[in-house]
């Protein structure tokens, strides 16, 4: 993967075992150096230490988390971060394989088993890097003029009197475009129609039911019976990606 002219990729390694923590950090550093991806890696000995770092302004694009840790475990940490709208890619690394099925609850990118396999870690890191290196901003005509919009922060899109309304975690932005025009701009990202007039970012979906979906915020949106099969297929594809 070629080097990109952007800030270094920031990775957090969180494991309460010092040897495992050092090994994971070293392997990740060597893999990304070979791929010519500038990287900064920070190590944390507890989930609470990493949570505090993020809550006080620390920014990471990838989190490599052990699951079984004293006190707050990796799953609890991931749930707390997602509840706070943290978007970093999460890769769990653990000897407890039974916990792997819970990874979907926090939209984990990968679940790797200990002892850690270098090739599997490489695949997981490059998968996460692809999302990070993908362009995140598009320019849209809003009430304030031509505005840059962070694609990954869009939760869903719905119709508006003069176009569409983009819903974010803490704001709404109105855009003078049709929903099909916006969908065309988002086709390279993880969006899918749950209804003819509702376009949803799959990264924000918590549960999928027969006639509705629940977002991570708790908000519920209807699913058209004509869209259900396709939406379910795209959601499952997203979870397995």
TrEMBL record:
SUPFAM superfamilies: CheY-like. GO terms for molecular function: DNA binding; phosphorelay response regulator activity. The keyword Phosphoprotein applies. Residues 138-237 form the HTH LytTR-type domain. It holds the Pfam family LytTR. Residues 10-129 form the Response regulatory domain. InterPro entries: CheY-like_superfamily, LytR-like, LytTR_DNA-bd_dom, Sig_transdc_resp-reg_receiver. Keywords: Phosphoprotein. Gene3D superfamilies: 3.40.50.2300, LytTr DNA-binding domain. The modification 4-aspartylphosphate is found at residue 66. May play the central regulatory role in sporulation. It may be an element of the effector pathway responsible for the activation of sporulation genes in response to nutritional stress. Spo0A may act in concert with spo0H (a sigma factor) to control the expression of some genes that are critical to the sporulation process. PANTHER family: STAGE 0 SPORULATION PROTEIN A HOMOLOG, TRANSCRIPTIONAL REGULATOR-RELATED. This is Stage 0 sporulation protein A homolog.
